[in-house]
Design a protein that fits this description.
This protein has 247 residues and is an alpha/beta fold. It has 2 domains: 164 residues, P-loop containing nucleotide triphosphate hydrolases (Rossmann fold); 71 residues, no CATH class. The chain contains 9 helices and 10 strands. Strand 7, helix 6 and strand 8 form a beta-alpha-beta unit. Helix 3 packs parallel to helix 5. Bound molecules: adenosine-5'-diphosphate (ADP) and magnesium ion.
Length: 247
């Protein structure tokens, strides 16, 4: 479904992504791991179009999306969450999701129907699928950190994506919130047939959830394989032992 071919991205001559490769099959839960500064967030930005690759290609469903603007990539079915939660803090949980559902249905600028009445069924369905239905009326900014991150995933679902790209979905969460979030992510992959690409610094989380793991260091792909292959890899052990943190 997704293939990255030798993508490069430099910031002022510094190669944040330096020839990384990645492949994601439909329906898979794929993790990208690597020490801080390895280039994971930059790589995700190249996939979703926030940044453009200097070299290399991003192929989605057989189509070269390397140079497409973010909204075109989103329309083709890739939605993302950010390392820091990106929500409308002063709107209710329900409205946050509804705005996303309406923008997907492109009804948000229909002047002849009150926006509040539109997209309600789909919004409710998404709320239930992430377990936030009891907090529909809460102001988003008042939610716990964990719930804000889950709301962000719900907002991404409003785009009816084929693929979700999640940048450290459990960052800053308590162990309980992390477990709940990973359960949710696995369930979304199972029940909605979603393909999910995520990066994460907690190794236990990654090895428990991912079907395929890509290890990055210094902007390069060290290996991509099944968890057991990655765990055995000498290069990975060296990257982590020799690397900074996160090990
Ligand atoms: P990760 O998500 O794996 O921690 P990042 O992709 O955020 O890594 O960063 C990779 C490297 O690129 C880091 O050294 C970071 O400082 C650098 N970098 C990221 N974004 C920018 C930017 N907009 N301008 C300059 N340097 C950047
Ligand atoms: Mg990052």
């Amino acid at each position: 479904m997704l293939r990255l071919e030798k993508v490069h991205k430099a910031f002022d001559g510094f190669l944040a992504v330096n020839g990384a490769e990645l492949h994601v099959e439909k329906g898979q839960l794929v993790a990208v791991i690597g020490p801080n500064g390895a280039g994971k967030t930059t790589l995700f930005n190249l996939i979703t179009g926030q940044l453009k690759a200097d070299r290399g290609r991003v192929i989605f469903n057989g189509e070269d999306i390397t140079k497409l603007p973010t909204h075109d990539i989103c329309r083709r079915g890739i939605a993302r969450s950010f390392q820091l939660a990106n929500i409308f803090h002063r709107l209710s949980v329900f409205r946050n999701i509804q705005v996303s559902v309406l923008s997907q249905q492109r009804k948000s600028n229909n002047l002849f129907r009150p926006a509040q009445s539109m997209g309600v069924n789909e919004t409710t369905r998404i709320l239930e699928s992430v377990g936030l239905q009891n907090k529909a009326d809460h102001i988003a900014g008042s939610l716990s950190h964990g719930d804000q991150r889950i709301l962000e995933i719900a907002i991404a679902l409003g785009n009816q994506p084929q693929m979700l790209v999640l940048d450290e979905p459990t960052a800053g969460m308590s162990p309980e919130e992390t477990a709940r979030t990973m359960l949710l992510i696995k369930r979304l992959a199972d029940t909605r047939g979603l393909t999910i690409l995520f990066c994460e610094h907690d190794m236990d989380v990654v090895f428990d959830a991912a079907q395929s793991i890509m290890v990055m260091n210094y902007g390069k792909t060290i290996i991509q394989g099944k968890p057991e292959e990655v765990r055995k890899s000498r290069a990975v052990q060296e990257a982590y032992l020799g690397g900074e943190e996160d090990a």
